[in-house]
């Protein structure tokens, strides 16, 4: 009887250790530490890319502002699937709901998504409201022309009264169930 309890205790300890190993990993990029559970997709590696700094003439009624894009890519061993992370840091806080004119009226948050390095150019996509890390943001489902879509969630972790200067995008071409689990694990801390 004591041997059975010992085996059960050892099994429970192993399960607890496995759960602890599945804890979130922090990816430090630019002004943010993006924590998310990447182990859901298997063994992986993280590569932080070079940041880019740009000037943006937002529209004719506002002044230009600078912004930086900080990227990182997570690749999974033996798979072509990946998770992409981008943090956009603007030199001034911007209204995220402001409508931008172009081919169609889009919000400033969707405009940032279209300018994202992870967004395929000229790709068809649909957006919907999506809550991530407790913030109201967007979820884009992007038609990449392949078998499965690219999912991109975007939000502003420093949003206050509808404006923010930091935008965080998490993209995944993993199946939706896996992607959703990764998105649900996201937590961002700003420097």
Can you tell me about this structure?
This protein has 191 residues and is an alpha+beta fold. Helix content is 20%, strand content 46%. It has helices at 2-21, 108-115, 176-185; strands at residues 25-29, 32-36, 44-48, 52-56, 65-76, 82-95, 99-100, 106-107, 124-132, 135-143, 150-155, 163-172, 187-190. Strands 3, 4, 5, 6, 9, 10, 11 and 12 form an 8-stranded antiparallel beta sheet that branches. Strands 1-2-13 form a 3-stranded antiparallel beta sheet. The longest helix has 20 residues, at 2-21. The chain is globular and about 45 Å long. Mean pLDDT is 82; it is low at 6-22.
Q: Give the helix level as a range of percent.
A: 10-25%
> Could you name the ranges where pLDDT drops below 50 across 5 or more consecutive residues?
6-22
Structural class: alpha+beta
Strand content: over 45%
Integer-rounded radius of gyration: 19 Å
Count of DSSP E strands? 13
Largest sheet: 8 strands, antiparallel
Reading the helices and strands in chain order gives: HEEEEEEEEHEEEEHE
Q: Quickly count the helices.
A: 3
Instruction: Tell the overall outline.
Output: globular
Mean pLDDT: 82
Cα separation of the termini: 53 Å
**Which assembly state applies to the chains in this document?**
single chain
